Automatic annotation (TrEMBL):
Keywords: Periplasm, Redox-active center, Signal. The keyword Signal applies. Residues 1-25 form the signal peptide. This is Thiol:disulfide interchange protein. Gene3D superfamilies: Disulphide bond isomerase, DsbC/G, N-terminal, Glutaredoxin. Belongs to the thioredoxin family. DsbC subfamily. Residues 161-294 form the Thioredoxin-like fold domain. InterPro entries: DiS-bond_Isoase_DsbC/G, DiS-bond_isomerase_DsbC/G_N_sf, Thiol:disulfide_interchange, Thioredoxin-like_fold, Thioredoxin-like_sf. Required for disulfide bond formation in some periplasmic proteins. Acts by transferring its disulfide bond to other proteins and is reduced in the process. The keyword Cell wall biogenesis/degradation does not apply. The lineage of its organism: Bacteria, Pseudomonadati, Pseudomonadota, Betaproteobacteria, Burkholderiales.
Length: 297
């Protein structure tokens, strides 16, 4: 089974919503105020094989809507919907825009009278339409938003600073599959082709927190992470006695980010494909998938 998982797109949780030309919703519910995807409990066992799950986009910031957009689309932009771009519905006189409402891709359909409907267009076979069209329109801004959020997280550098390829991995100091991925990546990292960025979490054992704190609090965190991996069979790095508030906050934030990206366990690997689109792999990748994630050796 391939470990590749592109940006997931679903209309499942969106209810149809009429938007008037004045930008006022006809119904009480609003896609901008819809409940976010339910968080996933971060306390989970490590994974040995891929397990595809939906991938949500990190929340994006509102932008000033271009005046060239129709009024209903401008209203959505003012409410915080981002990455709004038109797409072809394939139906005469039915234009539409794709966008991101918090963690949800959405579609807004523009009616001939100037009003709009946000929701899912269903085909005669009962299946949602426009999924591929909307995905293509929002995958680049969605990828950029996710990549930026990872870059702003608390991670430990593993590899050369100027490596041409960057791969993020949610890692627990006690995770055996994280260790196996660290070992498998050595040829790429040691050759300067890949920089791994370990977004440390503490979800496996009770001392995962104090081991992660030992790495974060070390004078050279990269060397401390390497020490933990090199001595993994002997128990890894020595845990610290006390965890500072700053380190505890880093771990909590990373744990929330791991759940936001849809990972139930470690390692959770995030990378860009050859088109620059963010993809992910759940668990330790099989050997034949390493070049997909890390590039050619």
């Amino acid at each position: 089974m391939s470990v590749r998982k592109t940006l997931a797109f679903t209309f499942g949780s969106l209810a149809a919503l009429s938007i008037s030309t004045s930008g006022v919703a006809a119904d009480a519910a609003s896609p901008m105020n819809a409940p976010p995807i339910a968080p996933i409990s971060p306390v989970a066992a490590p994974m040995a094989s891929p397990a595809p799950t939906a991938l949500a986009a990190p929340s994006a910031s509102p932008v000033t809507p271009p005046t060239a957009m129709p009024p209903v689309v401008q209203a959505l932009a003012r409410e915080g919907v981002t990455a709004l771009q038109p797409f072809d519905t394939g139906v005469k006189d039915l234009s539409a825009y794709a966008g991101l409402a918090g963690q949800q891709p959405i579609a807004v359909y523009l009616l001939p009278d100037g009003n709009g409907i946000v929701g899912t267009r269903i085909g005669t076979d009962g299946k949602p339409l426009d999924v591929e069209r909307v995905t293509k329109r929002i995958e680049k801004p969605l990828s950029d938003a996710m990549w930026s959020k990872l870059a702003a997280s608390s991670w430990i550098q593993d590899g050369k600073k100027d490596a041409p390829r960057v791969v993020y991995t949610f890692s627990d100091p006690n995770c055996p599959y994280c260790h196996r991925f660290w070992e498998a990546a050595r040829p790429w990292v040691d050759a300067g082709k890949v920089q791994l960025r370990h977004v440390l979490v503490a979800v496996i054992k009770a001392d995962s927190v104090t081991k992660a704190a030992a790495i974060f609090g070390a004078q050279n965190p990269s060397a401390a992470l390497a020490q933990n991996e090199q001595k993994f069979a002997q128990g890894g790095i020595k845990p610290v006695r006390n965890v500072t508030k700053a380190v505890a906050e880093k771990l909590q934030t990373n744990q929330q980010l791991m759940a936001e990206f849809g990972f139930r366990g470690t390692p959770g690997i995030v990378y860009r494909n050859d088109k620059g689109v963010v993809e992910r792999a759940n668990g330790m990748p099989p050997a034949d998938a390493l070049t997909t994630i890390l590039g050619m050796r």
